[in-house]
Structure formats: structure tokens, C-alpha cells
Amino acid sequence: MTAWGVLAIAAGMVMASEAPAPEARPNIVIVYADDLGFTDLGCYGGDVAATPNIDRMAREGVRLTRYYSASPICSPSRCGLLTGQFPARWRITSYLQSRAGNRACEQDDFLDPAAPSLPRVLKAAGYATAHVGKWHLGGGRDVVDPPKFAAYGYDKGLGTWESPEPHPDITAMDWIWSSRDPVKRWDRTRWMVDRTLDFLDDHADSPCFVNLWLDDPHTPWVPSAEDMAPGKDGQGTGKEPTPERLRGVLEEVDRQVGRLLQAIRERPQARPTLVLFVSDNGPLPTFDRRRSGGLRGSKMSLYEGGTRLPFLAWGPGLVAPGVTNTASVVSAVDLMPTLAAMAGAPLPPGYEPDGEDMTAVLRGERPRRSKPLLWEYGRNPTSFAYPKGDDRSPNVAILDGDWKLLVNADGTGAELYDLALDPEERYDRAATDPERAKRLTEAALRWRRSMP
Q1: Which of 86, 265, 270, 443 is the most interior residue, by most CB within 10 Å?
Q2: pTM surpassing 0.90?
């Protein structure tokens, strides 16, 4: 049977009583870049850095131009990916930090281990599961008792500082990174790719799922020792975030993604491997929107620049080659039902996904989603950080087809945009299309009131 046939069978067996045979299940690797902008990559028109390996990945797979994160900031965006549900359901509304800071943001200290979990679903279907890299869903600062990686369904967890199990190679001190780390800041992506390849090698007889969550290209940009400034007690700090330093970081990410893909190409086994390359939220700084392709907004904003991100899917025999999809709206919350379908893994009893099975997108089709996407960010003006100027958005948003409405949780400040004609969100249509604005406002606020 061809790999395309395997995919079709796996996609149709989500609700079947028996999972497909182990040899029919693909390996799955999610490469999650941190703060990567919509046009940071060459294949999205970026000109800051050369990214030939990732561009080749795009040519050999599926590239989306309407992929959205679950949040414009890291912790809730990661929650949405893992659970397939909007992160406010699980009381994560900003980046997880100190206990006092979390209370001020009206959020928990860590992701509830009772939440639905993609690795747990795949592990139950026979997958070996690993997390490598940044976690930021509990741990670090004064949160000293977060659930371990195993509580979410991981067989192995190699975390950074803000995790329940920070690895000593990259966490020599009680901080995100330091000059004392055995693996230096500019070498962390290589280390994470190596650990991912080790896991795949160690579990060659079973299907594998790996979350390879990078901490690049989040600032500070430290592509070499010369770009590191001294910090308090050895804590690492970076010099000024310039396009030149970003270029060095992006080129290293590209080299290491290239190593990952080449190792998979050369792997002496028949099992196909799906690799997704996505970002958690929009960039900051944007360099006058150069990193977001002119889209309004940035990290911490519900405008397009904060939530519309690169998405590449690659997998010989699994993913249609050479497809650029500009029509389908896909979200991070779709990954749980989509990847479960590909793996033939039943979803948990009673599970209510906010996402949809978008397997057809990976086959090169252009489906339209059947339900809207919703976001919130910023429950008060003192505990949440916001971008400056007109990149700061209202704190609730809904996307229904090509129409996007943003509004404050108290019902004020509604803005309506037709993204088909105005992806840069320049022309507010709320006054000229009041019926649509009213309908979407009511839907967005009804959803917001239903959240914890």
C-alpha cells in the first residue's frame, strides 16, 4: 500500500474501535518556533535572513498563508495547540510567570493535567512521546510544584527553565538561560534537534511523537558569543535587537531544521514522518512591520500581525508536495483533532474540540472551516503587556470566514474588517456594516462570558 493509502486509512479511523497497525502510523514532529513573524522566512517573502532549508521544506510540502495561533502570547498559544481548545477554557490568558503575576492575570499557575492532551491521546494509541525544549505551561520562577511531563502523556521531557523538568545542559542557573549553561544560547537549537533525533533513533520500532519547541527566535538574539552582554550573576542578556542579530539566529534555526529533515530523509526505515513547522505568536520587535509582511499588530495583539503565522507541513508520502494554500483558515486548535486522525488515535470520551480535523489540508485540498475562531488577550490594563500605538487591539476577537471583528470585553470599541480585501486591517467596516458588526459582537461576547 502507498503512504497516501496509509494516510487515508488513518484519517478515517479516528472513531474506529481498533487503531491501525503500528507500522501504519506516521512519526509526528512539531517544530514550534518562538516569536517567529509571518514573513521572517524566505518562503513567506522575508528578506531579513536566507532560509534555504526551510524554503525547501515549503517547496516539498504544504504552505499555508492563513494559519492562526490560539493566542498572541506564548503560554496560551501552547495550551491551545496541546488541548485543541481555546486556552481561556483552561484559565491560561497570558504568559505563565510568578504566582502573584498569574493571580493578577486571573490565570492558573500551570496547565491543568486533567486538560485534554495531544501527547496523551497519541501515547494511548501506541506512540512513544517526547517533549524537547521550551514548555512555558508551568514551572520556573516561584512555581515550584508543577505537574511533571508524564502527567500530560510524555514518556520523556527535556525542558528549559520554565518547565517542570529543566535539563541541566541548558539550565545551569535559576533563569531562562545563562553564560554558565553547558550548551550556550547560540547552540541550543542544535542541542534540541540532536535530542529529537536521539529519541527517534531510540524508538525506531514504534511510532513517535515529538514536540520540538525552540526558544528561538525569541529575544535576546545571541547568534554568537560576541553578541552576549554580561548579566546579573551570570544570567544571560543580549545586546540591542538588530536585524543583523536576528539574521544570525534565523540562519542557525534554518541550518538545524535542515539537519532534522535531512536525517529523516536518510533514515533507513519505511515509517513515514510528518514534520510541522509553525510559530507560537507574532514577532516583537517587528521592525516597522517588516517581520509581519505589513500586517497590523505584533506579539500581544489580536490584530493579524499577532496571530497570523507561518505554517509548513512536510512528509514524503503523507503531505501533498508543492502546495500553497491561501484559502483555508487553519488554527493551532485544529492540530489535536487533525493529528489524532492521522494517527488513528481516538479522541477522549466527551471531548469537545474547538478545532476541526484539517487532514484534507495536508492532502493538498482547500476546505473551509465550519465554525469561527475566537481569541482573548488582556483582561486588565495593569497586569498585561501591550504593544504601543495602533498595534494595540481590543481584547476579544472573532474570525468567521473572511470577516474579523475585535471588541473589548465590556462591549466597547468594536472594529470590523474584511480580510479578503483588507488583510492589513486598515479600514474599519463596523459603521458601514452594522448588522454584521452587531451579530459578530454578540457572538464574541457570548463566548467570552462563557469562559472561566
Answers
A1: 86
A2: yes
